[in-house]
Design brief:
Layout: H1 3-23, H2 31-65, H3 71-99, H4 101-127, H5 136-165, H6 171-199, H7 210-219, H8 231-250, H9 279-287, H10 290-320, H11 333-337, H12 339-361, H13 367-387, H14 392-455, H15 459-477
């Protein structure tokens, strides 16, 4: 699809999300409050979306670097980064509960901007022969791990700030809006990333679009002798720095800091806002809450399934198109060319479907959304197993549907349920704990599938099936769960 058209679609999607926000006002906030709240969450959400671009550009660079980065090398680099991201939450979650979400998003955007800039320099040096490509795994593992450490402040910052600005009754729909912004991040990462790669090709394999032709002279010097793939890292670095400056002046931790009155949001912190909790007490509150623990284990499975589909489908098709049976993969061309856009749509529908089911059909209970979506994921992965090398069109539709469901589950549990059950006091610690489990799952699938797909691609869906069954069983256990608000619901 023409990149100019897809970018216009993205602008429309952002517009619709903003419209949904302004139409959804179950608590009766004033118009002035709604506008200031929008000015708070919108740049915050877009910063988070561009953090995704600076995280998943590794997958795009892997396809661009070709033989310089093998499946196993990619699996190791991404696996190490995911592990650091997961464990960093245990430090950064409680830290964010102490320093506030605003400072956390500033650390995330500036830190990830710097690390992406350095990864761009290393890519330049490897491609120019100044660094031996044999050292690529070690150097990239260290830099990507540092990038992921800073990235881990992003999710906790968003949930922490929003826990003060939104009532429990609003959070399902708001979770859908943030699911949309996360999905935009996937679009930025894969489609903008691929646009950058195409624009930097010395000898493009196909005609370039309008945006590629505009970008090309800015990145390619007249006497260039190689593709400047390093721009896949430089461009997200620059964008993140711009958002760091914006957030510095616009984002506030709570309505009180923006000149409005703070209010009771009806979550698990209601009646406890005047109490001071130590980090150990916050962890004790969460680790003795069976619902929070169950959500963490569901999200461990979600981490395996989300990245197990998103990354490896992109890599699977790219590798198969270069193999002996390349003609069998022509049916996948539409899916791989529009992968970021399709993931974006999947995330939007998934996020809003999960939020709508939760807020409108099940009185803001988050469990039912997760149950319905895990059923679809299980069926989808079983279908994948049968069509992997026989029907690329069905495979494409199936992986998009699975992505829709897993992003929906991730948004409603990591983004919404954590704020409900952690409460404003422990929102960042709760999302840190739960997202930590997501990325432990991500690290497991990254290293396991990096190894298994080298042996045989048929191991790919087979590896995912048990985790979709486990996630479904756990989701059924939290079907009726609601936060224990100390002062009742308002």
């Amino acid at each position: 699809m023409n990149s100019l058209v897809t970018n216009l679609i993205m602008i429309c999607i952002i517009g619709v999300s903003v419209l949904i926000y302004f139409m959804n006002n179950p608590v009766g906030h004033s118009q002035n409050y709604r506008i200031r709240c929008f000015l708070n969450w919108f740049p915050l959400g877009l910063t988070y979306a561009f953090l995704y671009m600076g995280r998943y550009n590794l997958t795009v660079s892997k396809s661009a670097l070709g033989s310089l980065m093998s499946n196993e090398q990619f699996g190791t680099i991404f696996g190490v980064g995911a592990l650091v991201y997961g464990f960093a939450f245990l430090i950064n979650g409680p830290l964010t509960d102490k320093i506030g979400g605003r400072k956390a998003i500033l650390i995330a955007s500036l830190g990830a901007s710097i690390m992406n800039f350095i990864m761009g320099i290393v890519t330049y040096m490897v491609l120019n022969g100044k660094i031996d490509s044999h050292n690529l795994t070690v150097i990239f593992s260290i830099l990507y791990a540092l990038n992921m450490y800073f990235q881990s402040y992003g999710a906790v910052a968003v949930v922490k700030v929003n826990s003060f600005w939104f009532h429990v009754k609003e959070r399902g729909i708001v979770g859908g809006i943030f699911g949309t912004l996360i999905s935009l991040g996937l679009y930025f990462a894969f489609d903008w990333g691929d646009t950058i790669v195409r624009a930097t090709k010395l000898k493009p394999e196909e005609p370039l679009g309008v945006l590629e032709n505009i970008m090309r002279p800015l990145m390619l010097s007249p006497n260039a002798t190689m593709d400047p793939t390093w721009f896949v890292f430089f461009i997200p670095s620059g964008i993140l720095f711009i958002f760091f400056i914006m957030d510095l002046f616009i984002v506030k931790d709570s309505p009180g800091q923006a000149g409005f009155e703070d209010f009771d949001t009806g979550d698990a912190s209601s009646g406890e806002m005047d109490k001071q909790f130590t980090t150990a007490e916050l962890f004790k509150k969460l680790l003795t809450n069976p619902t929070v623990l169950t959500i963490a284990f569901i999200e461990f499975c979600s981490g395996i399934l989300r990245n197990g589909i998103m990354h490896w489908y992109h890599i699977f098709i790219n590798q198969m198109e270069k193999g002996a049976d390349a003609h069998l993969y022509e049916g996948a061309k539409f899916f791989i060319d529009s992968w970021g856009l399709l993931l974006c749509f999947a995330g939007i529908f998934g996020g809003f479907a999960a939020g709508f089911i939760s807020d409108k059909l099940f009185q803001s209970r988050r469990g039912p959304s997760a149950v319905f979506m895990y059923i679809i994921m299980l069926v989808g992965i079983i279908v994948m197993n049968f069509v992997l090398t026989t029907n690329q069109f069905v495979l494409g539709i199936t992986v998009v549907l699975i992505s829709l469901c897993v992003i929906g589950v991730h948004g409603i549990l990591s983004g919404t349920a954590t704020a409900d059950f952690g409460g404003r006091k422990a929102a960042a610690t709760a999302v840190g704990l739960v997202d930590g489990f997501v990325y432990l799952g991500t690290a497991l699938q990254s290293t396991a599938l990096g190894y298994l797909t080298t042996k045989n691609w048929h191991y790919w869906p087979l590896f995912l099936i048990p985790f979709s069954i486990a996630g479904l069983i756990l989701a059924i256990r939290i079907w009726a769960a609601m936060p224990d608000s100390k002062k009742g619901h308002h």
